[in-house]
Design goal:
Layout: E1 2-5, H1 11-14, E2 19-23, H2 29-41, E3 49-53, E4 65-66, H3 81-89, H4 97-110, H5 121-143, E5 147-150, E6 160-165, H6 173-183, E7 189-192, E8 196-200, E9 205-209, H7 222-233, H8 241-247, H9 262-278, H10 283-298, E10 323-327, H11 332-337, H12 344-355, E11 363-367, E12 374-377, E13 380-383, H13 388-405, E14 409-413, H14 414-422, H15 428-431, E15 435-437, E16 442-446, H16 449-454, H17 458-481
Parallel strand pairs: 2-3, 6-7, 10-11, 10-14, 14-16
Antiparallel strand pairs: 1-2, 1-4, 5-6, 7-8, 8-9, 12-13, 15-16
Iron/sulfur cluster binds at residues 297, 300-303, 305-306, 312, 369-371, 390, 393-394, 397.
Length: 482
Amino acid sequence: VTIAIDPLAPEAMRTPPARVVRLDGEDDWDGWRDAARRFLVARVGPEKIVWQPGESADDLFAQGAVDLPPEPQLELRVPRAFPELAKSAILHRDPERFALLYRLLWQITEHPGLISDHVDPLVRRTELMAKAVRRDIHKMHAFVRFRKVEDPGAANTGGTRFVAWFEPEHHIVRATAGFFVRRFAQMAWSILTPEISIHWDGETLTESPGTDSSAAPREDALEEMWKAYYAAIFNPARLKIGAMTKEMPRRYWKNLPEAQLIAPLIAGAQAREAHMVDQDVAPAQRAQTLSALSEEAQGCRRCPLWEGTNGCVFGEGPGDARLMIVGEQPGDEEDKNHRPFVGPAGGVLDRALVEAGIDRTEVYLTNAVKHFKYTMRGKRRLHQKPDAPEIDACRWWLDQEIGLIRPKATVMLGATAVRGITGKAATIGKMRGKPTPIPQGIGVVTWHPSYILRIPERDAANAAYAALVADLRLAATQARSG
Ligand code: SF4
């Protein structure tokens, strides 16, 4: 970071002189944080600082450089939510973001509670910037498509390199590099973007300047594989064009080989749906597709929950089950055993199934979220409720399970399952005890067994358990008659 006096600053900013902070790039979080701490402790107000990312074209401010305020002796305390928010927001394309963040930091030191005031215009604007950046990162994770090229320089990977072209909206390329390094550690790859390009050779990550799309190959042999994969997972019975274009915005289509199939697949969707309804897919074929789906889900990175788990816990049960039961997410036992409902809550469910006269082996059991979300307490992994974006990300898998099995009735255990199936929030006490229409067949909402286990009063727990058994009986009747 360099600081200079701006000779062209307006009069009001010259006394004391405005300081130009030159950052090392558009995403220079460390430089911004270091300068912000020093200025804050030196009580240099937001209106006295001009933030300049990168080199300025005419180098106006190179004259008269002055030192940063000294390293503060005191530890600067800010609410933890601030750096979490600022670290994302600083990657936004808005040229004012550095100044806005410093102004927010300045105000927070006087009113620490401000960071929780979500209607404050400055907090709100920062939150929206952070949200846009997170969404852009998610899209980059999902929509980078590599093409294979010969590269004699890629000695670590047998002369093969995978090259992708991507146009992010914000300054997120360096922030996503770790994701691609972890995911494709054994490959040599390059991601080219207009602002900066990143390259991995199997051992080292390097950077080069941005480029244009002509530098990236347009097609390769993998093209057909992507298309075949997309056509195989495309489920006409679950087609929602609005949701699909929201998940896969049109601006990314030109770089996605599978996007070429979208129009013909949508056009043929109704015909394919009618075909699926008329001609039942053979159970063996469904089982095979479910097992392929389960394998595919092991590599899922659609949300961060895969990290630190033993793998994805996919659903289990017959591919032609008339009854499906959807829970929340795998717990500690399920994660270790790679099977749903084998922990304490699974024990309660097993007992309730027997009392309701349902054979577990005839039911397809799955969860709305397929990876275990937890927090560490000492050496123990404590369950944490998945949040809405995680449930929505994992609906990708649940939708495909439902589309293949097409159950006559679906039991939704708790609010997470309801959100996974319907996309909406739920009050279980109000919804349970009666059939609920859902996009596929009939739904029955009831208590999650783990909720019953957490009820401290014996009578209340017994009542909730009796309700669970009654709701399972209702679902079994619906499944038989549907
Ligand atoms: S929880 Fe679901 S969406 Fe998230 S990584 Fe696991 S399988 Fe993918």
